[in-house]
Structures are given as C-alpha cells and as structure tokens.
DNA sequence: AACGTGTCCAACCGCACCGAC
DNA sequence: GGTCGGTGCGGTTGGACACGT
C-alpha cells in the first residue's frame, strides 16, 4: 500500500470515529447545506461540512450539492437532443462522464452515467453483444443516431419555430449536427438548447475534416450548420428508418424499433 | 392482496491527482 | 521526496418504485 492509499485509509478510520451520517439526505440536512453555501459559497468541503453542522463527509456534501441541490441542475427525462449528444460524445471519449457532462448544461456526470448504464447497456445486453464491441458501436452509429436525428427533426418541424430565435436572442449559440440519412437526403439537427455559451465545443470538434477526406470508418463529424455527416456507409436500413413512428421520447428505441434492430443486428453478425 | 422481478437513480466507494507544507 | 488535505472521477451498490403474475 502506497502513501496515498495509507492516507485514504487513515482518513476513513477518522470518519468512522466521528460517526458520520451515511445514506439518504434529510430535508434538514439539505437546508443546512444550501443555506451555508448561499452565505459562504462552495469549496473546502470538509471544513464546510463541519461549519455547516453536517455530520457528513466533505465528499458527501460535494456530491449532494453538485448532483442534486445546485440550482442549475436539470431534472427530468433526457431529451432526444441530449441522447444524441451523449451517443456522439461517448463514441469519441468513452466513459469520460464528467467531460461529456460539460457539454450538457445542467446534467451531471452521474445522471449521464446512469442513463448510459440503464438505457444503452440494457440494449446491448438485449442484443447479446458487448457494449464496447464494433458491432454495437456500428449499430449506434448507423442506426440509432440517424434515427434520433430524424425524430429530433420531426419534433422541430411540429413545434414552434420561435424557439431558435429566442435562444439566439439570449445569446446561446446554435450548434448543429448534420447527417446524410440513408435515403441520401441531408438531415440537420440543431442542438441549441444543449450548448451553453461557455462550453468548449471546439474541443470536441476541433479537427473536423470533410468525410470524403477521411479514410477512418470510425470517424464521426459534427459542425456548424451546413456540413454533413454520413452514417450510412452503404448499409441498407431504410425499411427500419421509414417504418416506425409514434416513438416516445424517453426511450430512443421502442418495441418495434428494437425488434427490427435485433433482426438487423443478427443478420449483420 | 401478496409476492417476485426488473428498473432506475441517489449515494457510496476506491482510487488518483494536485498543491501546500 | 514524503506526507497530508482537498478534490474529482469512474465504478458499484442499495433501496424505492413499477410492473407482472
């Protein structure tokens, strides 16, 4: 055991001696934490826990604040746009949840991680394949993501067109992901509600080149409105893409989607 | 109504990193 | 260079809840 590990063990032993509380937070504890941070700000979590009168570790206080009590935490279902972003960014960075969360304002790394485990990994399990396998990644890239784009577009088309204008007026940049759908028409989806003015999107997409100049099949692209992505790669999934409507937004695959996907997946194994 | 099973998510855990001393 | 305190990250778990039988 190295010095750092010893230090961690010693601190945990000290925690036990103080009889720190664990488990779910009470309303009273939440109020103490919120009020203390409102008066003194966040940071220095161990001393914060002490001075706020909370019998919790600093780590516990930090986690509670960041994942639950922070005023800008977004709650509720992950939107289609957010699902698409998660898939995109995960394909690039893997399980770098905090980095992915930086590009989904109001969403926590914990929430994204939970989403991935409960939704995406569940589908991988149902398809009887490893979530890290090429087959599963291809399925995401060539089937789920284009389908999400179409559904986002359908939603945009049926909703008020004032949204984008309003977002522009309050200074939120509009970033779009564009794809070529499988029938060779161009599809563009705006992610304006997800990208904060301070997010470093150039970090994600800083080295983008046109698809026809990149020979790497695993390459994905995203850009300002006007460029294109190509997820088709000659695979013919048009019946699936065209045949399913009325899909609920909280899951990116409904039952029919999944059955078709399972057939396509087995066929292409 | 009672029970079993599956799902979801808040919270915890272990580890690593960093800066100060 | 070693130690310590603070912090952040990714993986895991436990319990509440929903749903089916």
Automatic annotation (TrEMBL):
Keyword Ribosomal protein listed: no
GO MF terms held by the record: DNA-binding transcription factor activity; sequence-specific DNA binding
InterPro entries from the UniProt entry: EOBI/EOBII-like_plant, Homeodomain-like_sf, Myb_dom, SANT/Myb
One Gene Ontology cellular component: nucleus
Subcellular location: Nucleus
Pfam short name (any one): Myb_DNA-binding
Keywords, comma-separated and alphabetical: DNA-binding, Nucleus, Repeat, Transcription, Transcription regulation
Tree of life domain: Eukaryota
Keyword Transcription set for record: yes
Domain HTH myb-type: 17-73, 74-124
Segments forming domain Myb-like: 17-69, 70-120
The name this protein goes by in its record: Uncharacterized protein
């Amino acid at each position: 055991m190295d010095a750092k590990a010893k230090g961690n063990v010693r601190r945990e032993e000290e925690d036990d001696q103080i009889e720190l509380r664990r488990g779910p937070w009470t309303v009273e504890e939440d109020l103490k934490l919120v009020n203390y941070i409102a008066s003194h700000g966040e940071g220095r979590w161990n001393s914060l826990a002490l001075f706020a009168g909370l019998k919790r570790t600093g780590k516990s206080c930090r986690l509670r604040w960041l994942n639950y009590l922070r005023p800008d935490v977004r709650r509720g279902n992950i939107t289609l746009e957010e699902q698409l972003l998660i898939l995109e960014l995960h394909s690039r960075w893997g399980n770098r949840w905090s980095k992915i969360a930086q590009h989904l304002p109001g969403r926590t790394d914990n929430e994204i991680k939970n989403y991935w485990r409960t939704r995406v990994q569940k589908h991988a399990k149902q398809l009887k394949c490893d979530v890290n396998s090429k087959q599963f990644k291809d399925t995401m890239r060539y089937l789920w993501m284009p389908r999400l784009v179409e559904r986002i577009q359908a939603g945009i088309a049926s909703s008020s067109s004032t949204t984008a204008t309003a977002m522009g007026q309050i200074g939120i940049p509009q970033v779009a992901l564009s794809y070529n759908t499988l029938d060779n028409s161009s599809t563009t989806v705006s992610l304006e509600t997800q990208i904060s003015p301070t997010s470093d999107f150039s970090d994600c997409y800083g080295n983008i080149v046109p698809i026809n100049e990149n020979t790497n099949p695993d390459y994905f692209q995203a850009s300002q409105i006007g460029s294109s992505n190509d997820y088709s790669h000659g695979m013919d999934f048009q019946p699936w893409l065209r045949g399913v409507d009325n899909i609920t937004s909280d899951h990116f695959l409904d039952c029919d989607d999944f059955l078709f996907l399972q057939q396509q997946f087995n066929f292409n194994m």
